[in-house]
Amino acid sequence: xxxxxxxxxxxxxxxxxxxxxxxxxxxxxxxxxxxxxxxxxxxxxxxxxxxxxxxxxxxxxxxxxxxxxxxxxxxxxxxxxxxxxxxxxxxxxxxxxxxxxxxxxxxxxxxxxxxxxxxxxxxxxxxxxxxxxxxxxxxxxxxxxxxxxxxxxxxxxxxxxxxxxxxxxxxxxxxxxxxxxxxxxxxxxxxxxxxxxxxxx
Length: 201
Ligand SMILES: Nc1ncnc2c1ncn2[C@@H]1O[C@H](COP(=O)(O)OS(=O)(=O)O)[C@@H](OP(=O)(O)O)[C@H]1O
Ligand SMILES: Nc1ncnc2c1ncn2[C@@H]1O[C@H](COP(=O)(O)OP(=O)(O)O)[C@@H](O)[C@H]1O
Description:
Layout: H1 13-20, E1 25-30, H2 37-50, E2 55-59, H3 60-67, H4 75-94, E3 98-102, H5 108-118, E4 123-129, H6 132-138, H7 143-148, E5 170-173, H8 179-192
Parallel strand pairs: 1-3, 1-4, 2-3, 4-5
The chain binds 3'-phosphate-adenosine-5'-phosphate sulfate (PPS) and adenosine-5'-diphosphate (ADP).
């Protein structure tokens, strides 16, 4: 970057984390529309907040209606969507926040790039594994019906692909597990890896 000189800040990530009693990280939820990303992300943030951890949830509502309102759902725009979200999430990590992202993020190469931008040590990939047939059955926003009727183009799982994570840090099966089990699984992972310390509460 020509003529861009990064100014060293006196207050570092570690200083911000120390007063928050936690480590910044990104809990990256990926899965089909209707798989349960928003439901799980909301409940997870609620539980962490109750435990007095500092969190922020990035999802479609606050990103696709604001920062990324210029982007569509073709492959290139989804790539740019994920790139910008990753850069924002990286700043949240630097501020020491436990950041939860809830985006379909359907392509492996875009999620790999997200991991690279955010840093592998800060990135927790969570696969919300719900079969397409179940998502179509749930259809919480009526979007699958529209896509199957040909009224929405490039819909993930219908006429655009979803590439499953090969080796996610956490695998959540929303058919076999209820919401509480899924939340506990993620909280236990954060605790085990030292992002939070459940014992102190
Ligand atoms: N064509 C198409 N395909 C998939 N989803 C669509 C589409 N058009 C609109 N929507 C709505 O947008 C939400 C997905 O946005 P994301 O930013 O998560 O998508 S992506 O990560 O860029 O693939 C998605 O939200 P979720 O249902 O919560 O996943 C939909 O509500
Ligand atoms: N175990 C589960 N975990 C999460 N959601 C579930 C589960 N079982 C059923 N659901 C339902 O599935 C739907 C998922 O919708 P949503 O969270 O909006 O998905 P997404 O954000 O991935 O589009 C909700 O209506 C939710 O109540």
